[in-house]
Structures are given as C-alpha cells and as structure tokens.
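so i finally got all the pieces together for this one. its three components total, 850 residues if u count the protein bits. some of the lines might not be protein, just check the labels. i wanna see the whole assembly predicted at once instead of chain by chain like last time, that was a mess tbh
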Amino acid sequence: MLALQAAPRWFELDVAATPDIIGGWLICLLTLAVYSFLYKDNPFYKLAEHVFVGVATAWYTMEFYDSGVLKAVFVYLSDAFQTLHEPGKHVTEVGGYGMPTALAIAVRFGAVALSVMLLVRLFNRQSWAPRWPLALMIGIYAALKLTAETQARLVSQVKETMVPVVPEGATWMGVVGNVVFLVGLVCVLGHFVFTFKRGKALAGMSRAGIVILMLTFGGMFGFTVLGRIALLIERVSELASYSEPAYSLSSATAGAAHGWLDTALTPPFLIATLIVLVLVLAKLTGRAQPAPPPA
Amino acid sequence: MKREIPILLTVICGLLVTLAYFAPAPDPARGIEPSAWQAVNSELLDWATILVAVGFLLGIANLVRINLKQIAAKHPDTPYKVVLLLSMGLFLLFGMAEMHVKWLWTPLLTHLVPSDSIERADGTRIEGYVLERGDKEVTLRTAPDYAVTKVPADSVKSITKRSLKIWIYDKFFAPLQATMFSLLAFYIASAAFRAFRARSVEATLLLAAGAIVMLGQVPLGDELTFGLATPMHAFLMGNVVKAGQRAIIIGASLGVLATGLRIVLGLERSYLSE
Amino acid sequence: MATPRSFDRRWIFLAMGVVVVGLYAAGIRAPLPNSRYVESFHKTIEDLPAGSIVLLSADFDPASAAELEPMYKAVIHHLFQRNLRIVNVATWPAAPPFTRDAFSRIAPQYHKQYGVDWVELGFLVGDDVALGSIGQSLRSAYPTDTLNHSAYDSFPLLRAVGDSCQGIALLVTISAGFPGVLEWIPQLGSRYGVPIITGTTAVQTPPLFAYYPNQIKGFLGAATGATQYLQMVAENTPELQPTRDENQKRMLVQSWAHMLIIGLIVVGNVIYFTGRRKAQA
C-alpha cells in the first residue's frame, strides 16, 4: 500500500522516498498490460511478460552471484589471504571451529574447482565433469533431509500424537475433537498401507481415511481461494493508490480539490482507457490477432 | 570410474553430513566446544551453496543461448525475445556495476551507478559512493579521483542511498510478479463455475469443506451462517485437517527417509541420468 | 448456454473484477475476531525478555507480499516495541528490498541503532543448505552484513548470537513457500531447539495446524491472520493503524469475493445437473 508522506518527484532513486511519478506510470502500465491477457493474448501482455522474464532472471542472477560467489568465494578468500599476511596466529573459524587459514583456503579452492567442473556443461553436455559437483550436492541435500526431516516430521509428529485424549480441563467439544483427530489420523495412515491385501477392516479404515483426506483437501482449497483473491485485492489497492492527484497528468496538487478530469488523467484510468481503445480498434480493423486462450 | 567416483562422492559427503548431525552442538555453558565435525559440516554446506549459485548461472547462460538461437532463426516472437535479452542485459549491467562499486573503473562508476548523497556534520553535502559504514569510520569513493578513502564516522551526519537496481526492482520486477500471480484469482473463479462438480460424495465433501473455510476466514461468514462459520472452521482445521495433514507429513517423511538412505548409501543412482 | 464449459469465461473474469474493484472503492471496513493461533503468536513475542535476540527471516517475494508484507512490518513494530534485538536474514532472493524498505521506515520511529538493535544480513542461497548453514554457524554463513558491508564480528549483536544459535531466543519466519517455515522446523527448531513462530500465505497455512503448538508456538495464517495480528499490534502503534484499516477493508472485499466463488460453484453445479437430467430424460 502506498502512503504518500511527501509529494512525489518526477524521478527519484532514493530508496526511502515517496515513489516517483514516472515509476507510478510504469507500474500502472505494466500491471494493466498483464491484466489485458484476461481479454485475449495481445502485444501489451507479451511485452510485459518478456520484460518480466528478463528482469526476474537478472535479479535472481545478481542475488545468487552475490551470495554464492562474491561473498562465499571472493570475499572469503580475500579475508583469508589477509589473515595469512597479518602477524600472529593464522586461524580461520569454520563453523565455529578454528582451522589453520592455509588449510581453509585450500579446502575452499576445492569448491572453486568443482564449480569450474560444473561450468564445463556449458561447452560439452555429455562430459563426465559436471557429475562430480552434482553428486556432491545430491549427497549433501539427501543427508540434510534424511536427518533433520526424520526428526522433525516423523519422530516429533508421532511424539506429539501421543497425548491424552481427555486432557485436564478439556471441554466435551475438545474431547470430541481429539477423538475425531485420532481416528482420522489412524484411518488416513491406514489408507496408505499397500504392503498387503486389504481385508474388510483395513478397507473400512481406508474409506474413512478418504473422507478425512477429502475434507483436508477441501480445507486446502478454501485457503487457496483466500490466497489468490488476496493477491488481486492488493493489486487493485496499489492501482488505486496511483489515482492520487499527485500522479495525475493535470496540474492538480496533493490536497487541492480535484474533479473527475484530474482522476481520469491519473495513471490507472488513462492507461486502462488507452489499452482498451487499442484492443477495440485492433478488433474493429480486423487485424490478425493471436488466437484466444483455449476454452 | 565415470560412474563410481560420483557415487563415491555422494556417499562420502552424505555420510559426513549425516554423522555431523549427531555430533554434539557447541554449548559453552556446558563446556562443549566446537569440534572438527562442525567445520566439516559447515564447509560442505558452503560448498553446496557455491555450487547451487554456479548452477543457476548455468541456467541463465542456457536461457540466453536459447533466445539467441530463436532470434537467429527469425522466430515470430523475435522482437519480444530482443526485449527480453535487452531488459535482462541492462538490469545486469546497472545492477552488477552497483554491486562492484568498490572496484569499478571510475568512468564506468560515474556513468552507471547513481551516487549517494552524504551530509556532513558541518551541514555541507557531497556526492559519492559509500562502500562501508562502520562505528568508527566511513569508507567511500568520492570526487575528484574516486579513490577509496576513509573519513571519521562522526564527521558524517546522514547518508541518502540511491539505487537504480532497487528502482528497477520496485517498478518492473515487483509489480509484474505480483500481477502475474494475481491472475490466478480470475482463473479460480472460472474454474469454480466450469469445473468444480459435486459428482460424488467425496467431491461434495471437498466442496463443503472449502465453503466452510471460505466462510470461516472472512468477516461476513458468521453473519451469513448464524454464527456457525467460525466454530465449524475452527473444528475442521483444528481436528480434521490436522489429522489429514499429520498423516500426509508422516507418510511423506517415511518416503524421504527411505530415499535419503538409498542416496546416502549409494543405492540410488537415477540422478546420474543413465 | 448449453453447459457451464461452453460459457465464455471472460464474463466470469469481469464479474470478479467488478466485485473486487467496486467493493474496494466503497471502502467499508470490518474487524475480525482473533484466533487462538494469532494470540499465541502475539503472546510468544510478549513473553520474551527485553534485549532478547530474535532471528527474523524474510522468506517471501512480491508475489506473496500482498499477504505477508503487512505482517512482516507489524512484526518489526512489535519486536521494537518490546525492545527486542533483530537479526534479519532472507532465504528468498527477492526478499531483501522488502527488508530494506521496512527497516528504513520503522527503525527510526523507535530510535533504533543499526548494529546494536538490528542487523540486516541479506539473502543466502541454497534453500535447506542455507538454513543448515545459518543454524550451524551464522558467522560462517554471513561473513559480512548487507547494509554496511562490515565484518560479522564488528557487530556486538552478532557476536552475542554465538554458534548453533545459542543466543537466538526466537525465530520468526514470514514464509511464502519453499524454503520457509516447513524447512526451518527441521533445521533450526528440531535440531537446535529454537522456538519458532511464523506468518504464512494462505496456501501454506493448512500444514501448520499439524505443527502447532509444540513445533511452532503460534502462526498468522494468510491475510486473515495478518489482519487479526495488525488489530492487536496497532492498538499501541498509531503508525500501523492505516495498514490495519486497509487490511480490514480488504477482508471485507475478500468476503464478497468468496460469496461470488461459492455462488459460482453452486450455479455451475445446478446448471450441470439440470442439463444432465434433461439429457437423460
């Protein structure tokens, strides 16, 4: 949500200042260009989509490079070499454990060597070299998941299920809820048993388990609807914030009385009108349009 | 050897990280100091961090290659591919310049990176590039030669940071990503009308639970359901959904345990793409 | 129309647009009753002694900022009001600008000093590996901070964290998906015993019921949880009241959008079953 603390300037690079006017127009143009896809695929949307892919890729590249290459390799190694040249004990803390700096540098160069092996894939997709770093990553991730997730999801979840069905001070509704929970949990777990042929009891449990699962998925669906619509409402809110007179093409200033024309000349209204006019004109003149989205 | 060495690497690294999990965590209060296990674990995690970052750079190189091929082949969407590469290239140019302010060649620095505004304690203002702001000194590059200099921290009253990288993020990336995802609200409405059918008992239960949650989460829900929406929603989520979710979590964790063990013991080899 | 499938869906898009835009323009607010999960979240922060160090993780991006940014800002207000010290990290690459924006606006309101009361460490790549690194040793994971580019040990706040999160009293993760709270629980909660509270998107909320109250002490689920929490924190925070009012307005629009969805489901089913009965007859 945009809160105008001061009148916006035409162009502002100060990260803490009120968003600038050019920026407001850009945001509205890109937002409404994406929404034009709801009518049909069109050049406004395609342009916005390709700009998005370009800037998103660039942003992610910069962040990954900053975290995984600049800090973890260049800054780390330059600090370590600086430590080596200082008088006194040459110890680098790795995970809290003091390691000889020369050893720490040598070990970190191992990661550099593996990175170079990974980059070989750019030139030769069939090469054996990228398999080594990939194998290392898979081993590390598998070990992380194996240990921590087993503790958190298997052991802890089972432990937390072993609580009294009728705890002290519980209401009758609470007890009913606990019974529903326990029976539901056992039935769903029973539904996932495929090791042997199901008898009548297991089949009955499985059926009850399916009922619990359907209610669970229904709950997830309800939350999904909530989440998606919240995103739309926020976009409407941001567009509304750029219909402030400060962003209007007219000479209206913030705080002064403004009429319908000042509002009509603000970014969301003007750009929406422009996009609708262009699409209508294109349809009327019968120019070749991309096919509408499949039904 | 082409197969054996990667499997050996997986097993060794996997076992080291697994065993490090069981090493006592440092706790000075109980006299437990960091051990070599912490160093091994930390270094392997740092290696994985570096490799993930480099792997992403591989991905972007691939993206550029594919788009250049399509441009060369005069794909119908060529103008848009050009826009994609141009927007990516320009953002990378300005953003990378901003990230390397400390080392950047002065002519590039002054043309690509917007300067910060530094207000001194005596009330004067200078334009420059702030590299580091510590308690005792501020490191910056400023006119005329833009060499790295240090000034006492108490001689600097305030710094106004300017960033073209953040401006592009705020005006292009953020609104575009948010809007792309908000399109889903329309599609979910369309799906609700065209696809969600109560064809069976199970489907009806799913839709009923969804309706209870939708009504229970919003202010009007209780008013329209004589106050039943909130308690029904609380019971559904706190008992039924909790049961289903816990069962799914336990089941999935058994799968993760089995697959993780297979990988760490070198029994799972599908990741070698053979 | 023959069947719901043959109905031009653009009319449905238009209906959704009209409902949301029209009701938003009407500007009516409606408060929400608090849920026990939100009250637990609030109480966990209230119960921390002043000066405790909180690890605040921004695990979201612009696509989820609609639900998460208001709760992220409210959490920072709440933590500063309680004189808690904040170490901010991010595990999503698009999160750091939100951190920068939030702290640059909120910290001066409480006269908080960078390096003493809060530190921004920035994004760490690697998903589970990043979380494992942070848990193992924050110093190894972050050699420098991201705002001043100063060495880790130059900040007394960071030296107090120690290894294996000994100094961390609480983890607050504002989480949109992967990696997020479901990864923090194994890597920090179970492994190092750090208490966790979280704010999540709607899609991520259902699994949290299975982790409450032991593995997570409280949570803010979706925009609803954000609004409820804002109602609690904004009572003592005039700067947050416009955000609270805005969220309450959005929740009312949300209500009517939900009615539209339920209505569309009902109407779609009525048309479908009526058509099927006619076809069978």
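Chain B touches chain C through 65 residues (CB under 8 Å).
Chain B has a mean pLDDT of 92.
anyway lmk what u think
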